[in-house]
Amino acid sequence: MKALVLAGGSGTRLRPITHTSAKQLVPVANKPVLFYGLEAIAATGIEELGLVVGDTHAEIEAAVGDGSAFGLQVTYLRQEAPLGLAHGVLIAREFLGDDDFVMYLGDNFIVGGIGDLVDRFAKERPAAQIMLTKVGDPRQFGVAELDTAGRVVGLEEKPERPKSDLALVGVYLFSPAVHAAVAELKPSWRGELEITDAIQWLIEGGLRVESSVISGYWKDTGNVTDMLEVNRLVLESVEPCVRGRVDAASELVGRVVVEPGAVVERSRIVGPAIIGDGARISDSYVGPYTSIGAGCAITASEIEYSIVLPRASIAGVGRIESSLIGHDVEVTPAPNTPRAHRLVLGDHSKVQIST
Asked: Which residues in 261-272 are b (16+ Cβ under 10 Å) and which e?
């Protein structure tokens, strides 16, 4: 079995962060989201992986390399535009050959891995196997309709009137039969080749499509709220570890990770939290569920339930919460007079200002 990981999306819901960075490399607990998926695939024993990349290919290729760090052999597959999940399968046809494969969306996060799913597919060999989870608003997802026996009888992408509350999770398993389905597809109203249409083609052709409703945790980390929630979940499982320097005037409470080269001085850190390699925390408070990236500087400030990307600087700011702060950002207080806000914001930014 091979693996196909899709990492060509543009990440519009995470702008302005994704104007300059691949959404799949935004870190959770100081590790890119994409890496969690690669580790889950490697844990199944799969070795050959095709990685579909787009405009951010250089950044992703620099981060993943040849895949050997994950125990994988990575082949990069260029996608000229994000034209749908099934388009990713289409351009990977030569790489996949006649092998079964697991398709994994590079910005998805699943707790517990996919080993059981892969084992079940290898044993039962349906044409396709999908994972489902119950969601509050199915209109935002691909939605599955099941019969009374639990067999998949229909799929629809982002329907206005969903027939169930079961959304497709971003992991799929396919036999080579899917290639015939993909070859027959026409672009949807969104201008994309939909993987839901390919699976529907298999169903209508009388081929077996199996599903399982997962009880564990799954998130599509496509927006800031979900990124922060996944960061919270991962930090819940960290073990306290201090490999940097913490002075006697500082206090670490609970599960706090201080990476090598990090310095904490005259500060209080309440875990779960992680302080990245080479970061410096001075005269500050870092609250629960916060990830401070490598090389950051937090001075005379308070921050909680946030993700701070590498080399960002926060100085003299009273309190920051529920925030995603990008690479090399500088956050400082505004002048007291004149009383005005001075902003330099990228396209599609969202700003909340207290009056």
From this structure: bbbbbebbbbbb
Alpha carbon distances (Å) from 220 to 133, 170, 225: 12, 8, 10
* DSSP one-letter code for 18: G
Compute the residue count for the chain.
Answer: 355
Question: Which run of H or of E encompasses 116?
Answer: helix 115-124
DSSP 296-325: -EEES-EEES-EE-TT-EEES-S-EES-EE
CA-nearest of 150, 267, 140 to 208 is: 150
pTM of the model: 0.83
Per-residue pLDDT band at 15 (split at 50, 70, 90)? low
Q: DSSP code of 335?
A: P
Element (H, E) at 354: none
What amino acid occupies position 71? G
SS3 200: helix
CA distance 283 to 52: 44
Q: What pLDDT does 336 receive?
A: 67
Asked if residue 240 lies in contact with residue 47, where contact means CB atoms within 8 angstroms, the answer is: no
- E strand segments, 12-151: 27-28, 31-32, 48-53, 73-78, 101-105, 108-110, 128-134, 142-146
Instruction: Determine the 3-state secondary structure of 163 from DSSP.
Output: coil
Strands (E), 40-151: 48-53, 73-78, 101-105, 108-110, 128-134, 142-146
